[in-house]
Write a structure and sequence with these properties.
The complex is a heterodimer. Chain A is mostly helical. Chain A has two helices and two strands, in the order H-E-E-H. Chain A has helices spanning about 1-15, 35-50, and strands at about 20, 25-30. The termini of chain A are close together. Chain B is of the alpha+beta class. In chain B, helix 3 (about 140-175) runs antiparallel to helix 4. Classes of the chains: A mainly alpha, B alpha+beta. Chains A and B meet through helix 1, strand 1, strand 2 and helix 2 of A and strand 1, helix 1, strand 4, helix 2 and strand 9 of B.
C-alpha cells in the first residue's frame, strides 16, 4: 500500500504539478485541481509512509 | 456540454509521425517541425476531481492515462510534457499555440532531447533518542555515561548520513544536465529529480549504487524512480507573451 501510494505521489507530482502550462485565449480549461489540497495530500502520504 | 472538437493536449514533440501503441491513438497536429499530441476529450471528465481522493481514485487514473500518452510519444521522440488537463479549442487553437510559442517550445525540446528524468530519494528514520539503556546492574553514574554514549552515537550517525547524502547530491549533479529538488516529507533527506543524458546514465546509476551501499550501512535507504519523461524540467508558460 505504501508503495502504491508513493508511486501515485511521484506520478501526480509530475503530471499534475509540472509540465508546461498553456496560457492565453487558445485554452479552454486546465483541469480544476486544487493544487493546495494536492500539496497537502502529497505531504500526508509522505507522513504515512515515514510512519509505516 | 458536448463539444467534440475540444482537444486534450498531452505533449509537444517533433512533427514526425510515430506509431503510438495506444487505443484510441492520439493525433499529432503539426506546425513547422513541432507537433502537439492531442486527443478528443469531453471536458466534463476533468470536473470535480478531488485531489484528496484515494490512491486508486479518478485523478490517479486520469493522471496514469496522461502519463501513458506522454510515455508512448517519449519512446520515439523527445517530449515537452504539457500539464495534466490542458484542453484546447480545436485544431486551429493548437496550431496557434505552436505559432505563438514556437521558439520557446523548440528551445526547451532541444534542451531535453536525449535525456531522461530520474528521481532519487534518500530516506532516513533516525533511531529514537528516547529509548533508554537497560539500567539493570548499573550505578546511576554508569547509566548516565551509557546514555550519553548512546546519544552521541546517534548524533554521529546522523551527521555521517547527512554528509553522505550531501555528497551524493553533489556527485549526481555532476552527472546530470539539470536537477530539481522536490518536496521532502518528514524523514526524507533527499528528494531530487535529475535530467540525465542517456550516455551518462550508466555512470549516474553506478554512483547511486555506490552511495546506496554507504548509506544503507548507516541506516538510510536510497530509492530511485524512472526513467520519466522530463516532467520536472519543462516548467514554462507557453502562449503568455503573445497576449501581453
Amino acid at each position: 500500500m505504501a508503495d502504491a501510494a508513493e508511486a501515485v505521489v511521484d506520478l501526480l507530482d509530475r503530471v499534475v504539478h509540472r509540465g508546461a502550462v498553456v496560457t492565453g485565449d487558445v485554452i479552454i480549461s486546465l483541469a480544476g485541481i486544487d493544487l493546495v489540497r494536492l500539496d497537502l495530500r502529497l505531504l500526508l502520504i509522505g507522513i504515512e509512509e515515514s510512519l509505516g | 456540454m458536448s463539444a467534440p472538437n475540444w482537444l486534450c493536449a498531452y505533449a509537444i514533440t517533433r512533427n514526425r509521425p510515430a506509431e503510438l501503441d495506444l487505443d484510441p491513438a492520439p493525433r499529432l497536429i503539426g506546425y513547422r517541425d513541432l507537433g502537439v499530441v492531442v486527443a478528443e476529450v469531453e471536458p466534463a471528465r476533468f470536473d470535480g476531481l478531488d485531489s484528496l481522493e484515494p490512491v486508486d481514485g479518478t485523478l490517479a487514473e486520469l493522471a496514469r492515462e496522461h502519463d501513458a500518452v506522454v510515455r508512448a510519444v517519449f519512446r520515439h521522440e523527445p517530449v515537452l510534457p504539457l500539464r495534466f488537463g490542458t484542453v484546447l479549442d480545436g485544431e486551429g487553437s493548437v496550431r496557434r499555440l505552436l505559432e505563438v510559442a514556437y521558439d520557446q517550445a523548440r528551445d526547451c525540446l532541444d534542451e531535453v532531447e536525449g535525456h531522461r528524468e530520474w528521481g532519487v530519494r534518500v530516506r532516513y528514520a533516525e533511531p529514537a533518542a528516547t529509548t533508554r539503556p537497560d539500567a539493570a546492574g548499573l550505578t546511576g553514574t554508569q547509566y548516565l555515561v551509557r546514555r550519553r554514549e548512546r546519544l552521541k552515537a546517534i548524533q554521529q550517525t546522523r551527521e555521517q548520513v547527512f554528509r553522505t547524502a550531501t555528497r551524493l547530491e553533489d556527485v549526481l549533479r555532476e552527472h546530470a544536465t539539470d536537477s530539481a529538488e522536490r518536496a521532502r516529507p518528514h524523514g526524507v533527506l533527499v528528494n531530487t529529480a535529475y535530467l540525465v543524458a542517456t550516455g551518462r546514465e550508466a555512470a549516474f546509476h553506478a554512483e547511486v549504487e555506490w552511495f546506496a551501499r554507504e548509506l544503507r550501512a548507516a541506516g538510510a535507504t536510497v530509492e530511485t524512480t524512472g526513467p520519466w519523461p522530463p516532467y520536472s524540467f519543462t516548467d514554462l508558460e507557453l502562449g503568455a507573451a503573445a497576449h501581453g
